[in-house]
Amino acid sequence: xxxxxxxxxxxxxxxxxxxxxxxxxxxxxxxxxxxxxxxxxxxxxxxxxxxxxxxxxxxxxxxxxxxxxxxxxxxxxxxxxxxxxxxxxxxxxxxxxxxxxxxxxxxxxxxxxxxxxxxxxxxxxxxxxxxxxxxxxxxxxxxxxx
Length: 146
What we know:
This protein is mainly beta. It has one domain. The chain has one helix at 30-40; strands at 8-16, 19-28, 50-54, 71-76, 79-82, 89-96, 103-111, 120-131, 137-145. Strands 4-3-7-8-2-1-9-6-5 form a nine-stranded antiparallel beta sheet. Strand 1 and strand 2 form a beta hairpin. The protein starts with 7 loop residues before the first strand and ends with a strand.
């Protein structure tokens, strides 16, 4: 009997003004898993292009989450690449500049649209990270297939 279980997991690092303030795991939601499977067949779905932050506090629901609880800002990914030291990892980076999405940030997600809607790959909820109007927030998100 062959038992080979593939998992898709992730973790993100959140920095305010270049200082890391939180490191948290994420959940790949069902829509994200279906997106990954469709890409194996060459489906024409667009690549992951945006990251959103929000103030929602509801827990992650793998089966139902397709949006953030309360999205306050979305930015185009500033970079995305296969990790140079581990080809099973994809690293996404987005920067939320001053005056973009300030407040008590408690959630984030990755989408294949950089403005609104799109397919959500993953979502995480975390303790409050306060982003002031003059603060820049950078999120580095690593997705691992193992």
